[in-house]
Amino acid sequence: MQKLRAAITGIHGWVPDYILTNNELGKMVDTNDDWIMTRTGVKERRIMREPGKGTSDIGAPAVTGLLEKTGTRPEEIDLLICATVTPDYAFPATANIISDKCGLKNAWSFDINAACSGFVFALHTAAQFIEAGTHKKIIVVGAEKMSMMTDYTDRTTCVLFGDGAGAVLLEPTMEDYGIMDAIMKTDGIGRSFLFQKGGGAVKPASQETIDLREHYVYQEGQSVFKFAVVGMADVSVEIMERNNLKSEDIAWLVPHQANLRIIDATARRMGLPKEKVMINIEKYGNTTSATIPLCLWEWENQLKKGDNLIISAFGGGFTWGAIWIRWGYDPK
């Protein structure tokens, strides 16, 4: 019996124009291009500098471009899910604002916050609505303005993050393509290693939290690195083994772009050569929920119908997961 699946039928991305290079960062903090490249693999990152602009202003162009590219009318969209850790406001959801800016009058929408695993969690969630037969066209957008929570006096974190967005269109198919399997995991122990200390219900915004610079990303780098290397590699191998996939069956690994060393370790565990790994961290840095769709956007013309893709991510919380996708269309 054929199974109803959710297939990606289009992908689009958007990044701000301004490029913040390693050399420019070297004028702001005690760092240099060699130090950053050796430890992270990041060469430059895009930054939204216009005042009064938020994550919705990064996500909306990705969604609008996706609609135009796929010939989809805004009123055809049933649901929009935005994966973000940098919402425009505490409420309403950034997904609601993007929907309004893009004219999605018939869609309901909500945000998912799973840090760097946000896009993976959102894609898996969206697939459930397609497979249930209740929704026909869903947009998943990973959008971040990480520059708003980056401390440019902290050389250990300011070199990592950038701004950007990527969006995909999901539609039902009865063919043997689309999202084939997914594994999602969380472990709340990670909350003390990577988080934003100030601004939430535990420690509301105050003069003290501002003075202590607690509204920026806080990270214990070594601890996060150790968990990420194991978590991302393990879940990627687990989804392969569960579906009897060998390294030669995989066309592409699409990893979260947090650190080049984490990406390399994951690929080695999966038995994949670098030629099968999508890597653009050197251009965009870590855009959190946007890294994976930005990779798919850049590599779209190289993807062929039937290609097996493993997308994999690890993020604060801790959150991590992997999805096996059988790509559903040839380059246009």
Structurally, the number of domains stands at 2
Order of adjacent strands in the largest pleated sheet: 1-7-6-4-5
Q: What fraction of the residues are assigned to beta strands by DSSP? A: 15-25%
CATH superfamily of the largest domain: Thiolase/Chalcone synthase
User: Structural class, please?
Assistant: alpha/beta
Number of helices: 10
Q: Which CATH-level-2 architecture of the largest domain?
A: 3-Layer(aba) Sandwich
Helix content: 25-40%
| Span between termini | 31 Å
Overall geometry: globular
- The averaged pLDDT comes out at 97
CATH fold-type name of the largest domain: Peroxisomal Thiolase, Chain A, domain 1
How many E strands?
13
Detailed description of the structure:
Helix 7 packs parallel to helix 8. Helix content is 30%, strand content 25%. A five-stranded mixed β-sheet has the order 1-7-6-4-5, sandwiched between helices. The mean pLDDT is 97. The chain is of the alpha/beta class. The protein has ten helices and 13 strands. The chain has two domains: 5-177, 3-Layer(aba) Sandwich (Peroxisomal Thiolase, Chain A, domain 1), CATH 3.40.47; 180-326, 3-Layer(aba) Sandwich (Peroxisomal Thiolase, Chain A, domain 1).
